[in-house]
Amino acid sequence: MNEAPARDLPSSERTRVRRVAQRAHYDRATLEAIVDAAHVCHVAFADEQGVHCIPTACWRDGDHLYIHGSNGSRMLKLAAAGAQVCVSITHLDGLVLARSAFNHSMNYRSAMIYGCFEVVPEARQGAVLDVFLEQLAPGRSREARPGNAKELAATTVLRIGFDEVATKVRQGGPKDDEDDLGLPVWAGVLPLGVARGAPIVEAAPDGAPAYVRDWERVVLA
Amino acid sequence: MNEAPARDLPSSERTRVRRVAQRAHYDRATLEAIVDAAHVCHVAFADEQGVHCIPTACWRDGDHLYIHGSNGSRMLKLAAAGAQVCVSITHLDGLVLARSAFNHSMNYRSAMIYGCFEVVPEARQGAVLDVFLEQLAPGRSREARPGNAKELAATTVLRIGFDEVATKVRQGGPKDDEDDLGLPVWAGVLPLGVARGAPIVEAAPDGAPAYVRDWERVVLA
């Protein structure tokens, strides 16, 4: 099989990957896998003080990436007002140790989303925030006390579509120069992933739900 | 003991944390711990196409954060030419599950560095890149084939000082409203950290060095 990779994401001059272009992917499945594995993104935007790069929680629902926060947040106010942004999500999957210093690399999966956020209307906020909570802890949106009118009114929820997106992935072992292959140097990959540690209990009046009992594990790409 | 926190980092109007300001730290030790735990940062900058947010490998040596890459990189070319940047480093340490949906949170450590990169002269590049390799794998700069003149000439190394920096840290358990403390809802923290997976060997002509043998482990904050 030598299928051409899917190219089902809209691209643009801005999202065409130039450096090491064979690592670029323009398909929706790659994008969704990268986004869905993330709890946090970095949002870059500019104001009169210059360029900023702010980490914030994120989640996907269908065709949009969502972020949220206090109405008082500078980033959310600017983004709600239509500021151009670049949202970046990165997973570091390993250190790639080559026989030559120059050919050392890292394995990663990254996504960049360009465009503008739009405001999620207050009437839709509760449902959209429930989706977020369910992704973090399935069932919890029916356990925790729901947001009341005052809490929802203090919260801004924004979403951005996948209209101008690029993803880039490096995986696999080192790419050494032919001349270096015989050198007596250890070569390979030191994998990196996510560790979920033992839950820290503050209160468990009805015992621990499944998402707590099953939390602890190692997640490698 | 109720010592005032150290404030030994220069701050500015741009780096004064406004949202949840009690999470802000302006001391050098906090900054160094956040930077030294990271292999990757996000660099935000702007050009005629808008704002960009690019992940790249990073390391600290003394008073500077370093990045590097191919001379052909757009980001490195712009940064070398003096573009204003915001560099962001974020570690996600856990999901904080409160009794109310609204008070859910995340534990994290983050740093933002504003300013401009400067170019590391070619004569210093080899030494600076050795520091990077030593931090990833102690001893490896004496094992791997060093960069030759052609490889170093194709590489740009940049550094930025800690002149305009902010860090923000959230740790600990949920902060529930008094009225919610009696609700029958599990409350606590689901910790997140870094998992180092079993090394993937491509070649081990002389066996595995210590940084490979000792690699596999879980690192929690």
From TrEMBL, chains A, B:
- Which is an annotated Pfam family here? Pyridox_ox_2
Report which superkingdom the organism of origin falls in.
Bacteria
Q: What is the protein name given in its UniProt record?
A: Pyridoxamine 5'-phosphate oxidase family protein
Q: Which InterPro entries match?
A: Pyridox_Oxase-rel, Split_barrel_FMN-bd
